[in-house]
Amino acid sequence: MTGAGSLIRSAEVLVTSPGRNFVTLRLTTEDGVVGLGDATLNGRELAVVSYLRDHVVPMLIGRDAQRIEDTWQFLYRSAYWRRGPVTMTAVAAVDVALWDIKARTAGLPLYQLLGGASRDGVLVYGHAAGRTTPELFDSIRSQLAEGFRAIRVQTSVPGIDKVYGVSSQPPTGRYQYEPAHRAPLPVEEDWDSRAYLRHLPGVVEAVRAEFGAELPLLHDAHHRLTPIQAARLGKDLEPYDLFWLEDCTPAENQEALRLVRHHTTTPLALGEVLNTIWDYQTLIREQLIDYVRSSVTHAGGITGLRRILDFAGQYQIKSGMHGPTDVSPVGMAAATHLSLAIHNFGIQEYMQHSRLTDEVFRQSFRWADGHLHPGEEPGLGVDYDDDAAGRHPYEPAYLPFNRLKDGTVHDW
Question: What does each C-alpha distance from 54 to 11, 16, 324, 375 come to in angstroms?
């Protein structure tokens, strides 16, 4: 029988902007145990704030914090309007905060409650980019010097002013790229798929020649290609043995991956914009992808994403969790605990947060030889510093959007 001490006493929705916006849910039980959940949805943060503060928080007070599955099902099913990024980010924040409470109450790091470690550390990949091939080489060397053992490579394209993943400034060491702009309206960027398709294979060929066959290389097409263009790119990149080609075509059209799969053996990663197991039905059942890209933060938390990954594991599909800087250290910690525990782990994205962010979210991660470990602190291993957070108020920011040369709005 559950004691009164495990009932949720308070639920706070915390917003801070230490260089970029983060939303955090903090739950506290009658016994004073605190749990944190990441509720950040880049460019739509306040939609999740309202969903939590106005609709979810009133239903959490007095609920048993130990009943994680029951609470997940209640939040998912009782709203009637299911799925979608706002809903599933809110559900994720509650779910992760409850797992944090349960592990802190047990006095164990969260991964121990998920079955214990399946590996000694979590292989992560870093990010390299350049406006020119020499700049890209310098960026790769910088990432290798920081200890990364797998690298995502992004490059500018001749004739295109701004390209996803590439800063307009020369690289200065640590990879720094924040696509969300603090501006009253989204920034407009341009795009030319044919120019990209002509340019990219030669860049990847040069990287492979410079850094050898052993370095795992990844690339993100960021949803911008049609299915037949994605098939061509996957085929053109086959000689360079990519670890994966990410988001080669918009994820909403799951059947499109049949065409891509038919034409290339380049491994495919997809799903950072997908939020539930239902979004993956065709992709997983027909084995159209090799890596699941959803984040804990946007796919219903540890409970939601583990369901997806258990389903994927039946088809030898592995994890490749989304981990940019718009997933807070709370979300990153949850992903690292889950990655350490599951059997079908593949790789995890790790974009290092800024010094200001690390002052707000104090973490127990361990980093060595290209691998992360969440540490042995009870719970997630992350604490929230209210004083530091209070020095960084929310500022509106938007992700960019693309237009083709003729002015047509295009996938960014």
Answer: 12, 19, 28, 35
